[in-house]
Amino acid sequence: MSETYRSRQERKQVEKTKQDQKKGKNPPKRRSFLNKVLLWCLLLGVVSIGIGAVTVAAMIKDAPKIDASKLVDPLSTKLYDKNGNFLYEYGKEKRTKIEYSQVPKMLEHAFIATEDAHFYEHNGIDIKGTARAIFKNLKGDFGSQGGSTITQQVIKNSFLSPQKTIKRKVQEWSLAYQLEQKYSKHQILMMYLNKIYLGDGAYGVAAAAKNYYGIDADHLNKLTLPEAAMLAGLPQSPSYYDPTEPEHVKAATNRRNIVLEAMYKQGYITKQQSEDAKKVPVTAGLVPKTKQQGMPYEAFLDAVVKEVERKLKNVDISSDGLSIYTTLDPKAQTFADKIMNTDTIISYPNDNFQGAFVFLDTKTGEVRAIGSGRNQYKASFRGNNFAVDIKRQPGSTFKPVFDYGPAIENSKWSTAHQINDHEITYSNGQSISNWDHQYHGMLSIRTALQWSYNIPALLTLQEVGMDKAQNFAENLGITFNNNKVYESYAIGSNTVNPLELAGAYSAFGNNGEYNTPHFVRKVVYPDGRVVNLTPKPKRAMHDYTAYLVTDMLRTVVKSGTGKTANVLGLDVAGKTGTTNFDSKTRAQYGYPSGAVNDSWFAGYTPQYTMAVWTGYTKNGPGNYMDGNSTKISHQMFKAMLEAFGTDQSSFQQPSDVYQVNNELFIKGANPEEAPPVTKNNKDRPFDIGGNKEDKKHKQEEKKHKQKEEKRKQQEEKKHKQKEEKYKQQEEKKHKQKEEKHKQQEEKKHKQEEEKHKQQE
Fold it and tell me: CB count, 10 Å around CB of 703?
């Protein structure tokens, strides 16, 4: 039988009475036990709270004081060159301060919905949001989840370091509460909206509106809903969500739509307004992007900032007031810019021709200058930077890194080690050939590297083993996609950028010690804290490996494929590298069979190392290199070394390396790697002389050298003749093809004329 009540209050009262009666039926012993548990929990809680309170008090005591001047303007970052001379102050160019009355409600709502939905309800700390963040952080590292209010973000950006620690978070809470007591909500909101970095050098919403949409501070009400949502989505990652960059349009669209969804959930816009705004392209209304005025060495400083942001998480160089000490040599960078952006040093074939290089200190890995793109692909600050971003196949420049270096390191090969250059295939049956389509029989690895033959390189890799080759290359800073390597990497079918290749080659010139190539020495925070970013050197190979590779690369430059890069008076070692088009691409664009896709030169002296890439960004009619334009990478190297190479010292031969008949051998190597024994060198060291027998030996050695030199000259002569013959054949084929094409075009033209006449 259902009971009836005169009111909701009467019903609630009856239900409460019944619950109390049920509770009263609990056994006394159980109630007593629960009381004890509750008492102990209370005592533990009091003790924990006491300890926690003391700890928190100590943390708060060390917190900085609220300085009104820091709340108004962000701190700019200062950049310095390798000598500590001031270069540039970043973070003060695009700032436009506005008042609360100038901010449209729609723009205010977009930021509040995205960054702090309860901004007008809390006292600086969103308790629920913080609780959610703490709960999520308990599952992982502290700092993995934010939960910061707009007030906390103002505090963090104005007074505290970017480190994610409990102490910093507690100080942030305390200062946020203090800030709310001193300033109104509108004042705090404007501190935030005038301070935040929104990309492309723009600080604050007014500067960003002008930057992206051409709308000045007095007309912010002209911003559309999709535009306001786009601006509100930028603070999380200004560069990644930059709608002016084609590669970021998808990410920018997704981020803007998240903002629109948040505005709808908070009741600022209707569902229909949200859906309509999502249909608008994120690129709508954007004005052409303008570069910051007056920034010197944009490409280099772009690389500097990328390195700082990669190594120091949660920094904002636009407002953190950092002092960044770089490795830049202004004179070298000025000359590098001249090489890239004028025709006074290098004669480029056309405006589409591109190049990039890294010029660094061989002993320290400090980058002194970079070249990065020409004309429309010239690097800009916060833009694409070929020197550090581009990924291209290095061709034969990879052979010392992946083939011959590992062979010497692991098997102590001599430079005279013999390889049979004959017809072979990759392990999967795919064909491989030398660039001259010839086989050269038994030859030394020095000769194989001197003339950049492919088959000996593959045979070397197969003998060394893929694992050892990969380990050797990785010790030189080379990375591989998905941690996988393939036999085709023996001739450089993987991808690298000039920075990585320069770093790898510098280790050969630094007795086998590798320094990660870097643009920054140290960063100093406004509070005086110094963060040293100079990488520590590491032993990547034995000194004998570095020296034997270096000596073979000397031969490449003196009398091999890299003669164009040789610099008089300097001890230069280096390697050329080219990549070819596949047959399908050649046919599609009418490229000749000898057309080259990429041309590299990587080389070094005891003072400087430089890796150069040249080529075209994409395939198209005329976008290929031939015999002459492939030498431009060599010419760039030579120009920089002639201008700045002042150290005329030579690479020093290690004590465990000895020379016989112009070839180098390693002491303690397997007997098969030792030089052939003659009656003159039997049972005697190769570096001691002074008696008649020694003089006789030296005379014989001199004769042998003369004979060897004559043989080399003959070999070079034959090689040149082959090369010339091959070139003539290619030119002949190209001319025949052009003539055939011309005849076809003329025939077609005549047929069209005839057809036109008949129609008339």
Answer: 10
Q: Among residues 76, 108, 115, 500, which one is catalytic? A: 115
Do residues 665 and 414 touch, judged by C-beta distance below 8 A? yes
For the cut 50, the answer to whether the pLDDT of residue 140 exceeds it is no
CA geometry: angle 619, 625, 627, nearest 5 deg: 160
Distance (Å, whole) CA 62 – CA 445:
65
Please indicate whether residue 396 is annotated as part of the active site.
Answer: yes
Q: Which residue is catalytic, options 174, 274, 372, 396?
A: 396
* Helix, strand, coil % in the chain, rounded to nearest 5: 50, 10, 40
Contacts with 413 (C-beta within 8 Å, 6 or more apart), sequence order: 404, 407, 445, 548, 669, 673
DSSP for residue 482: G
d(CA 164, CA 93): 29
What string of DSSP letters covers 280-295?
Answer: S-TTTTPPPP-PPTT-
What string of DSSP letters covers 25-53? Answer: TS-HHHHHHHHHHHHHHHHHHHHHHHHHH
Give the model confidence (pLDDT) of 477-530 as tens digits.
Answer: 999 999 999 999 999 999 999 999 999 999 999 999 999 999 999 999 988 899
- Distance CA(246)–CA(119), nearest Å, equals 34
Measured between alpha carbons, how far is 589 from 356 in angstroms, rounded to an integer? 25
Residue 164 clears pLDDT 90, i.e. is over it: no
Element (H, E) at 538: strand 538-539
Query: How far apart are alpha carbons 306 and 27 in whole angstroms?
Result: 69
Name 714's Cβ contacts closer than 8 Å, sequence gap at least 6: none
pLDDT for 7: 46
| 507 vs 101: CA distance, rounded Å | 60
Instruction: Say how far apart CA 233 and CA 162 lie, in whole Å.
Output: 21
pLDDT score of 693: 41
> In a 3-state reduction of DSSP, which class is residue 438?
coil
Q: Which two tokens stand for residue 339?
A: 């090489």
CA distances from 185 to 119, 169, 181, 235, 239 (A): 8, 21, 10, 20, 29
Name the percent of the chain lying above pLDDT 70: 77
Q: How many CA atoms lie within 13 A of 519 on its CB side?
A: 25
Is 253 or 200 the better-scoring residue by pLDDT? 253
**Matching residue, tokens 């070397």:** 460
- In single-letter form, the type of residue at position 731 comes to E
The C-alpha atoms of residue 497 and residue 339 are separated, in whole angstroms, by: 19
Q: What is the 3-state secondary structure (H, E, C) of 632-671?
A: HHHHHHHHHHHHHCCCCCCCCCCCCEEEECCEEEECCCCH
More confident residue, 669 or 681: 669
Does 737 or 678 have the greater pLDDT score?
A: 737
The amino acid sitting at 595 is A
**pTM of the complete model:** 0.63
pLDDT tens per residue, range 291-333: 545 689 999 999 999 999 999 988 888 878 899 999 999 999 9
Active site residue 115: yes
- Kindly state the helix (H) or strand (E) to which residue 692 belongs, with its residue range: helix 692-759
pLDDT of residue 517: 98
719: its two tokens: 């090689």
- The per-residue b/e assignment along 268-301, b for 16 or more CB within 10 angstroms, e otherwise, is bbeeeebeebbebebeebbeeeeebeebebbbbb
